[in-house]
Design brief:
16 helices
């Protein structure tokens, strides 16, 4: 179990603040904010609010989101408490964080500002403190020009659709503002990030170290640059770090979990045992074995699931994943006596299903992995540490562990950029695309799968085809992409 840092609000705030900081004086009466221009479609996607800075995301919107987040979180909290705020390295993150803090304090909420940190840091600290919620400024794996706002409830879980709808109702002027009796205060609490780092090491219960392993870390110029190398080194590993500075101009650019090329080459060049690539906010991770082969979330779930199953720590032998999980993974896990439940794409849906079923392990092929034995949300650093520990305990290379697990079905995923938001989100109404999907499904029968969906985090339609042969997958992928391009991008 992870050691909690259960402290009172007074302890964590620190003893150096004056009484005036806690007086609650300053703003009286009804505080109303001017409305901002919003899209006609839903503002919240599969992972909070995300979009291009200067288009959807700007300071006035962040101010409003902060205000209404504060109002909604307070209305659903039994007692007052702070909101924990963190950010990634994007150039726009400072601006959005300060605007959000202004909105939160305008709503009468105290803000604990962490600065640069992984998204799981916000979720974890929110879950074990008296915080009523958390906010992370990040667009995860998106390019530098994008950014996003992720909101957590007081338990550290992604905010429910119901509470998201309440925030959006306020943003759209559909909620009457209640009176705010006082201003909140903004406190810098960067030291809490180090305490989160200690919990990562403690999650291995001091039974495993990583001595003898050479590990390459691709930090994607993002949120984990100051934390991941330190934690892995302290656990005994020899660490080689790539893209290990906070750089808002280069975050996720040709690196990290969306581009493994440099990591793969470095692992092989330095004869490393394995490598890990994080995304910009380090809530997900992909691995590379010593041959440079990618080890995605399906393999991570299978290997970690086997370990937990052997330790009798996997209730009902259940793993929760998404519709993207490979058929090869599903059938191999069933052969081990396991059960796989699929959800919609998005770690919030995986998390919700795990809570509903009591599942302890779940995640996505893309590298969001949730293990409720140790964390409330997806955590790339935690996952990487535990996979490295499995390799150390097994005494065999990761490549051998993968070879003994399962063979994936050929799966192709293509993204088609669709700028028109309404057309993208309502793509199901496009008859030619629906006819093409039906034709492909009929042709493949039970030898393959098709998944077409609008991304909740990027302006793209995702087309996935999985088939018994690479030729079949390639054929139908090209057919479906052509239809999407012809009817949705013009």
């Amino acid at each position: 179990m992870v050691t909690s840092i259960n402290k009172t609000q007074e302890d964590i705030r620190g003893s150096s603040q004056s009484e005036s900081h806690k007086s609650g004086k300053g703003l009286n009466g009804n505080f109303a904010l001017n409305l901002v221009s919003l899209p006609t479609t839903a503002l919240f996607g599969t992972d909070g609010i995300r979009g291009e800075v200067g288009e959807l995301l700007n300071a006035p919107l962040a101010l409003q989101v902060g205000f209404w987040t504060g109002m909604v979180l307070q209305s659903h909290s039994c007692q007052p408490g702070p909101v924990i705020l963190g950010q990634d390295s994007r150039n726009s993150s400072d601006m959005l964080a300060m605007a959000l803090s202004a909105g939160l304090t305008a709503a009468g909420v105290e803000v604990w500002y962490l600065g640069l940190c992984p998204t799981p840091t916000v979720a974890y600290l929110t879950s074990i403190s008296e915080a009523i919620g958390g906010v992370m400024i990040s667009a995860s794996h998106n390019p530098p020009e994008d950014n996003g706002i992720k909101i957590f409830n007081g338990n550290g879980a992604k905010l429910s659709p119901v509470l998201q709808a309440e925030i959006e109702a306020g943003l759209r002027g559909q909620t009457i503002t209640s009176k705010v009796r006082h201003c909140g205060r903004h406190y810098s609490r960067r030291e809490l990030v180090s305490q989160y780092g200690e919990t990562l090491k403690q999650s291995l219960q001091n039974t495993v170290n990583l001595q003898g392993l050479k590990i390459v870390l691709d930090l994607a110029w993002g949120a984990a640059v100051g934390l991941a190398p330190k934690v892995f080194t302290q656990m005994g590993a020899e660490v080689i770090s790539l893209h290990n500075q906070a750089d808002g101009d280069r975050i996720n650019v040709n690196c990290g979990s969306t581009n493994l090329g440099i990591l793969q080459a470095t692992v092989m060049e330095h004869h490393a045992d394995l490598g890990f690539a994080f995304d910009g906010d380090a809530d997900r991770v992909l691995a590379v074995d010593h041959t440079g082969r990618q080890v995605d979330g399906d393999y991570i779930l299978y290997l970690w699931g086997l370990h937990l199953q052997q330790q009798q720590q996997l209730p009902d032998n259940l793993i929760v994943s998404t519709v993207m999980a490979n058929l090869g993974f599903e059938r191999a896990w069933q052969a081990q006596g396991g059960k796989l439940i699929r959800t919609a794409v998005g770690d919030q849906y995986v998390q919700a299903e795990m809570m509903r079923t009591g599942g302890m392990l779940g995640g996505e092929q893309s590298g969001h992995i949730l293990c409720r034995h140790y964390a409330i949300t997806g955590d790339g650093l935690l996952t990487a540490l535990h996979i490295a520990a499995l390799v150390k305990q097994a005494g065999v290379p990761l490549s051998e562990m993968v070879d003994q697990s399962f063979q994936t079905y050929p799966q192709l995923l293509r993204n088609v950029r669709v700028i028109d938001r309404d057309r993208r989100l309502n793509w199901q109404n496009c008859i030619p695309v629906q006819q093409a999907i039906a034709l492909a499904e009929a042709a493949m029968g039970d030898t393959g799968r098709i998944l077409v969906r609008a991304s909740g985090t990027e302006p793209v339609i995702r087309v996935m085809v999985e088939a018994a042969s690479a030729e079949l997958a390639n054929h139908w992928t090209n057919e479906l992409v052509s239809q999407v391009q012809q009817h949705l991008t013009v």
